[in-house]
Description:
Layout: H1 4-34, H2 38-51, H3 56-68, H4 72-80, H5 90-106, H6 110-130, H7 135-147, H8 156-169, H9 171-184, H10 188-199, H11 205-218, H12 222-233, H13 241-253, H14 257-269, H15 279-292, H16 296-309, H17 314-323
Amino acid sequence: xxxxxxxxxxxxxxxxxxxxxxxxxxxxxxxxxxxxxxxxxxxxxxxxxxxxxxxxxxxxxxxxxxxxxxxxxxxxxxxxxxxxxxxxxxxxxxxxxxxxxxxxxxxxxxxxxxxxxxxxxxxxxxxxxxxxxxxxxxxxxxxxxxxxxxxxxxxxxxxxxxxxxxxxxxxxxxxxxxxxxxxxxxxxxxxxxxxxxxxxxxxxxxxxxxxxxxxxxxxxxxxxxxxxxxxxxxxxxxxxxxxxxxxxxxxxxxxxxxxxxxxxxxxxxxxxxxxxxxxxxxxxxxxxxxxxxxxxxxxxxxxxxxxxxxxxxxxxxxxxxxxx
Length: 324
C-alpha cells in the first residue's frame, strides 16, 4: 500500500499534465466556437464538467456555447453558478449580458422585457467598467443604448460616447458602430458612408454589402437595393439574410419576382437565420411573391406552410383568407 507521502508525490507529478490537458480543452473549444460549431463544443465540454464541476473557465465556455445554440435560459443558469468567482472578469460580464440579451430578444412579455433589459444594461456596463479597452463590450453597450427606449436606459448621446471611444482605438470597428448609430437615427446616407468606409477593412464583406442594400431598401431605392443584395450574395461568406431581403425587395418593388421566389426558397431551405426573419415569415413573403407571379395555388400552399409552423402568424392568416 502506498504511503500518503508517495500518493502526494504522484499527484504533484501528474498536476502539470492535468493543466496541459485543461489548456488544450480550452483551446479546442475556442476554435470550435470561432468556427461556429457550438454543439461540438458542448459535446467536448460536458464530460469534462461532469468530472471537474469547479472548473470555472470551462463553465464559462459552456455558457458561451449555449448562447451560440440559442439556449439563452440555460446559459444564464450556467453562468450564474460562476458569477461570484468571476465577479472581476470583464469577459464574464459581457457573456452574461449576451445571454440576457438573447432572452430579451425572445421575450414577448412587455413587463418581462423591462426586467431583462436592466440586466443586459448592467452586465455590459460592468464589463466596460472592469476593462475600458474591451471594445466588443463597448460596442454591445452602444448598440443597447441605441436600441433601448429611454425608460430602459437607452440614450443616443451615451451610444455616441461609446462609439467615439471605439473609433479612437479601432477605426474598423468604429466605422461599423457609427453606421449603426446613423442607421438608428434614420440617416441612411450617412450610415452608407460609414459602411463603405468599413467595407475595405471588413473580414465579412457580405454582411456589410447587405447593410448597404438594406439602407437603400428603406429609402425605397429598389434598384440599388437589388444591386447590393446581389453583391452580398456573390460573396463566398454569404450573409444568409441577404436571400430574404432580396426577395422582400422583390415584393416591395414588384420587380425581379421570379428571382425573388428563388431567393426565398433558398432562405427557407437553409432554415432561415438567427439574425434574420423566421421561417414562417419567409413562407408568408414567398406566398406574396407567388401572388405577384399569378400563382395563387402556390401562394395558398406557402401561407399554409407558414401556419403549420406558426398557427397564429397574423400576416399569413390574413393573406390566406384574402387569396381564398
